[in-house]
Design a protein that fits this description.
285 residues; Arc Repressor Mutant, subunit A; Rossmann fold; 5 strands; 7% strand; carbohydrate derivative binding; SIS_dom_sf; transcription regulation; DNA-binding
């Protein structure tokens, strides 16, 4: 989760001075580096002590310690998503090649954004959870379940079975999981309403390991799971041409998860793939 995403979360969920400060930061990103505490106090009618408490609530020792990484992140955001809105990345006036270039930039930036959110320890734990799981089930509604089938195919190619149940089979599948299994949930928004009621309660009671892939680390889904892999969160849930950025982020995370799992037994998995490729090739002759 980026610092800006944490600030956006406070803006969306708080109703006190934290919301006022978060709103001010998000609406004055380009000027923030040049504003002193006195400037902000005068413009936003927020006390300097409240600003310091806001910074400390986000884990910093004070406002200056908070401002340095925030300004760096704002600068990086302006570079990666410069002049291109992930939700409306092209206009009716753009040529075909311009549209192609803009889609490429949005998707590349989304991958780089998601890469910056990855944590070495969480990736390791997720990979070992895949390895030790008797069954792996990926839950998600369209198009996330379609992306999950690519992940399923990759793991199948090295002898690891993954299930991707249809939406009307999620509840039945969840009821069959045990503490030796792994449940993976994909949801950009992190809402639980897209999954059957009581599903998380059942999995928790039966000690099924749960891995969330979402853009919202404070979401109900993230808080209901044992492990969290965070997506880039630049895209809105509604009001967009298509999910160019979020789908690319999800596929990137799934590809990374597969690759990290593969690396746990690199030679064994490579040998297995080679044998399968040779057998499949013989079958074509």
């Amino acid at each position: 989760m980026t610092l800006l995403q944490d600030i956006q979360y406070l803006a969306d969920t708080k109703k006190d001075s934290k919301k006022d400060i978060a709103d001010f930061i998000l609406s004055h990103k380009t000027e923030l580096a040049h504003l002193t505490l006195d400037d902000i106090q005068e413009q936003a009618y927020i006390s300097k002590s409240s600003l310091v408490r806001f910074a400390k609530a986000l884990g910093f020792s004070g406002w200056k310690a908070f401002l340095v990484p925030l300004v760096e992140e704002i600068h990086k955001e302006s570079q990666t998503f410069s002049y291109i809105d992930p939700d409306i990345p092209f206009t009716p006036l753009d040529s075909n090649l311009t549209i192609a270039a803009k889609i490429a930039q949005v998707q590349t930036a989304s991958i780089e954004d998601s890469l910056a959110l990855l944590d070495e320890d969480i990736l390791t734990r997720a990979a070992y959870s895949l390895k030790k799981a008797n069954r792996i089930v990926v839950f998600g509604i369209s198009p996330n379940n379609l992306l999950a089938t690519i992940f399923r195919r990759r793991l199948s190619a090295i002898g690891k079975t993954v299930e991707v149940p249809q939406q009307d089979e999620m509840g039945l599948t969840a009821l069959s999981l045990k503490d030796s299994d792994l449940a993976v949930f994909i949801s950009y928004s992190g809402h639980l309403t897209q999954f059957p009621a009581q599903l998380m309660t059942y999995l928790s009671e039966n000690q099924v390991t749960r891995l969330a892939i979402t853009s919202q680390k404070h979401s109900p889904l993230a808080e209901a799971c044992d492990l969290l892999l965070t997506l880039s969160a630049r895209e809105q849930v509604v009001g967009k041409i298509s999910s160019f950025a979020s789908e690319e982020s999800i596929l990137f995370i799934l590809n990374v998860l597969y690759a990290v799992y593969f690396s746990l037994d690199y030679k064994t998995n490579m040998d297995y793939k080679q044998r399968m490729a040779e057998l499949l090739e013989k079958g074509r002759l």
